[in-house]
Amino acid sequence: MSTRRIFFSQLALDARIGILEHELRATQPLHIDAEIDVDVTQQVHDQNIQTVLDYRLLRNAIVQECTQAHVNLLETLIEQVVDRLLAEFAEISRVKIRISKPNAFSDCAAVGIELQRSR
């Protein structure tokens, strides 16, 4: 069986995340990288979006999950994102997500968490 990989590179959004006092008061930027493997079960028909997994739907799910409520830990947030993607999109066989906080430290580009899960 063939696999098609959909990926997002540095999807940028503002989220309410963290346990520090300043993180509890304001949003902060997150960068999200994702690789989503989809089992290819049918031929792609160029005029029919229904023959592929529409990556707009994946993006919307990721953004909504990251912005709907305050979350204390990146570890919790990344679990929620992966759980949602696997629950909503049956055609996903593997998902790898990396969520990073680019402003967490002044001496590095970002700090983050990566999680990979397969069915």
Automatic annotation (TrEMBL):
SMART domains xref list: FolB (SM00905)
Keyword Zinc in record: no
Dihydroneopterin aldolase/epimerase domain span: 6-117
Keywords for the protein's UniProt record, in alphabetical order: Folate biosynthesis, Lyase
Annotated coiled-coil segments of the chain: none
GO CC annotation terms, alphabetical: cytoplasm
Database matches in InterPro entries: Dihydroneopterin_aldolase, FolB_dom, GTP-CH-I_C/QueF
Class in the EC hierarchy, top level: lyase
Pathway terms, separated by semicolons: Cofactor biosynthesis; tetrahydrofolate biosynthesis; 2-amino-4-hydroxy-6-hydroxymethyl-7,8-dihydropteridine diphosphate from 7,8-dihydroneopterin triphosphate: step 3/4
Catalytic function, reaction form: 7,8-dihydroneopterin = 6-hydroxymethyl-7,8-dihydropterin + glycolaldehyde
EC number(s) from the headed UniProt entry: 4.1.2.25
Alphabetical list of PANTHER family matching this protein: DIHYDRONEOPTERIN ALDOLASE 1-RELATED (PTHR42844:SF1)
Recorded family membership: Belongs to the DHNA family.
Role according to the record: Catalyzes the conversion of 7,8-dihydroneopterin to 6-hydroxymethyl-7,8-dihydropterin.
This protein's name: 7,8-dihydroneopterin aldolase
Organism: Eoetvoesiella caeni
